[in-house]
Amino acid sequence: MGFLNALLLAGTATFAIPVVIHLIFKLRKRRLVFSSLRFLQQSLLRESKRLRLRDLILLLLRCAACILIALAFARPYRAGQVLAGPTGELREDLVLVLDDTPSMAAQDGAATRWQAAQEQALEAAAAENLERLGLVLVGEPGRPEVELSRNFEATREALKKRARPSYARGQPAQALITALDLLADSSAPRRRVLYIGDLQLNQVDRAAFGEAANRAVSGARPTQVELRPPAFGKPPGKLNNFSVESVQARSDVWIEGRPVRFAARVANHGDGEAGALVVKLVSGDKVLAQRTVGLGPHDAREFELQASFPRPGEVHGYVAIEPKDALPDDDRRLFALKLRSSIRTLVVEDSLLERNSYNDESYYVRMGLDPRPRGAEEPEPGQGGGYVRVGALAVKDLTPAALKDCDVLFLAGVTELPAATLATLEESVRKGLNLVVFLGRAKGEISEGFYSGPFWKNGEGLLPARPGTRFLGDLLEKKYDGLDTFAADHPVFQAFKGEVEQELRRPQFLRHYQPDPKDLKAGSRPAGQILASFNDGSPLLVERPFGQGLVMMFSFCARAEDDTTDLPKRKIWVPLLHQVVRYLSGVDQGAQRNLTVGDDLALSTLGIEPTTTVRLTRPAPHSDTLELAGSEVVSVDTIGIYTGAYQPGALVQQAHWAANLDPLESDLKSEDLAAVQGLFASNLSGDKEDEGPRLRHQADDELKAQAPDWRYLLVAALVCLLLEVGLRDFWGD
Q1: Which of 299, 653, 705, 722 measures 20 to 30 Å from 65, CA to CA?
Q2: 551 CB contacts (<8 Å, ≥6 apart)?
Q3: Which of 52, 84, 71 is closest to 13 using CA atoms?
């Protein structure tokens, strides 16, 4: 038994007051004169015995009331009643913060980190001194999984029902802040947050953890924060782990007899060598490509896998590595792809000649892409012809309907565009159409007022840069330009490394424009980049984003003439154009169909009407089908293949999305536990060295004051006084 106000125990001495009063009244005597005393003496003897008993009881009740009131004001408390549980430990409100991010699925010793963390959490939830219990998961840090309450079984059930961690990347610091907010109004003798997790290095933001540490000591009473690795005090081990970080199709065009090229990036996150990793590309349970690679410690490599598919359309699969390692979840990476049978291009110039189409300004562009006569009927896929389908239009016929199914649009020798046509073109490029512009004409000139005016629009228009001045060469005087530098790693030029590079340097340019590189700087539009330059340093090829589309600009005429350039007559012309088309047609390939857990899956990527019904089948553990409108968005919360079925016409079509683990989860290194724990300890040391104990003592005083015994003592004192009044008024009658 203890007392909050022990000095007030001196008030128990007040019991002497009724004793003194009793003795004083006992000493006072009164003499009464009666005529006959024989009967009175007998009555007095009986009455005096009764009065002495009554007075003794009244005295005891008054003394008891004084003592009880004094004890009540001393505020007694007892161990095991409020401050401590049956074990004698301080009672507490506890919030468990459990790391359920994918790295917790790593096999660390005999069990996974998740299994060890579950066991620790269940042990903490079974403590006998708990007042209330809550649960917060790092994968969903913004809300508690189980509210702080006395329903301990709800927390234990929430812990037991999870067979494995989630696939979501979490925010440990935010989870701690949520837990501290749950305890903000707690009146328990002790408030504690227990964080159980591997403190994965690339998830720990020390600034954010510092904010949580400040939150722990804010207010009148501090909250104890304990960080514990999922190995019963043992820091997480150094584990070997390999992962497939990315899989990217270099093109989404299916060409009969030609494999699709995939770029796969594999990483070694461990400290040991990986001498022979077997990498496989699998689709439909069939291994389509395989190779063996070696990686050094903390090394990563990107390499190519080629896979042949029997037909165009929707395909999906994965790239996997063997042997297995500590974290199997990242040993394979899924991909989803729609292979197109052709790329739709449109070549536009001022006007098309009715005869002698070989004199068109766009003739060499059309022939380089698809060597068929203008207007020839297109063969069916697989029945001959190339994978590029080319259409030709005059400027006057450039309408929204003509642009609807176009992937890449070429402007060759266009003088200018009407305002309405330019607005149509801008809107199409903004929505994803890709544009290629050739500056100059074989005969006549482009309109400087249009190209530097509405086409450029002070940097807000379609043109990446203004034409600038014009270079005029002379073949007899050997005054001409050639290719000087180019971005060898850019997709347009990757195929021309090595000996083929010499073919790029042979063409001669006698006339070309000299755009100013300063025009490519960022402004209202993102910055552009120079992909190739002439000998005089001016840009030969540039690109710049416009909305969701890309605009590329060649600074020379697309028609081969004696006084322009001989490039369209050289053998490098055709592969150069095809590289441009492949790059532009696949520039966003995979961005919409290959997702990371936590991303939004937009059904609009199917290109269907917003009101069209889509039946979306989700992978395990959901294994269900949702019926959604084409305008809806679904959050991706598990890895696997999501399949959407819809019916735009008579036939039902399907589309696939691949959901993968965040690559950052693959690095299993943990932050130094002592360093992070020090962030919380430092808030109760240093400048706050005196404040910490003071806050703790203040909290203890408040908690002791909550002991209810003083109320019972006051009630007992009141009962004594009521009994005293009753005995005094009615016993004497």
Answers
A1: 705
A2: 429, 434, 435, 436, 437, 462, 463, 464, 543, 544, 545
A3: 71
pLDDT(690) > 50: no
Q: 3-state class of 73 per DSSP? A: helix
Q: How is residue 581 annotated by DSSP?
A: H
Quick one: 310 exposed, middle or buried, by C-beta within 10 A (0-12, 13-18, 19+)? exposed
Domain edges within the chain: 2-28+38-78+708-731, 92-237+669-704, 242-340, 343-585, 594-663
Helix axes 16-27, 38-73, angle to 10 degrees: 160
Pair of tokens at residue 144: 């508690």
d(CA 521, CA 527): 5
Q: What is the pLDDT of residues 334-359, one digit of tens each?
A: 999 988 888 889 999 998 886 777 88
| Residue 56 CB burial class (10 angstroms; 0-12, 13-18, ≥19) | exposed
Predicted structure pTM score: 0.67
- What amino acid occupies position 239? L
Give the whole-angstrom CA distance, residue 555 versus residue 92: 75
Task: Take residue 536 and report the two structure tokens written for it.
Answer: 């005089």
Tokens matching residue 171: 């925010």
* Residue 703 pLDDT > 50: yes
CA angle 271, 273, 274 (to 5 degrees): 120
CATH number for the 343-585 domain, one of 3.40.50.300, 3.30.1330.60, 3.40.50.970, 3.40.50.880?
3.40.50.880
φ, ψ of residue 642 to 5 degrees: the values are -95, 130
Contact 83, 708 (CB under 8 A): no
Beta bridge partners of 410: 347, 436
- Burial 690-725, CB ≥16 within 10 A → b, else e: eebeebeeebbeebbeebebbeebeebbeebbebbe
Q: What CATH superfamily classification does 92-237+669-704 receive?
A: von Willebrand factor, type A domain (3.40.50.410)
Annotate 685-733 with three-state secondary structure: CHHHCCHHHHHHHHHHHHHHCCCCHHHHHHHHHHHHHHHHHHHHHHHCC
Sheet architecture: strand order including 483-486: 388-394, 343-349, 408-412, 434-438, 549-554, 539-546, 529-534, 483-486
- Fold adopted by 594-663: Immunoglobulin-like (2.60.40)
94, 192 in Cβ contact below 8 A?
Answer: yes
Return d(Cα 140, Cα 171) in angstroms, integer: 8
Contact (CB, 8 A) for 221 and 698 = yes
DSSP secondary structure letter of residue 309:
-
CATH level 3 topology of 242-340: Immunoglobulin-like (2.60.40)
Q: Cβ–Cβ contacts within 10 Å for residue 670, how many?
A: 22
Are residues 185 and 95 in contact, defined by beta-carbon separation less than 8 angstroms? Answer: no
How does residue 10 score in pLDDT terms, banded at 50, 70 and 90? confident
Amino acid at 170: G
Three-state SS string across 674-689, please? HHHHHHHHHHHCHHHC
The mean predicted confidence, pLDDT, of the chain is: 85
φ/ψ (deg, to 5) at 722: -65, -40
Residues 6 or more apart whose CB falls under 8 angstroms from that of 133 comprise 93, 94, 95, 96, 125, 146, 148, 149, 150, 151, 152, 155
Higher per-residue confidence, 109 vs 103: 103
Scanning the structure block, which residue is given the tokens 């219990």? 133
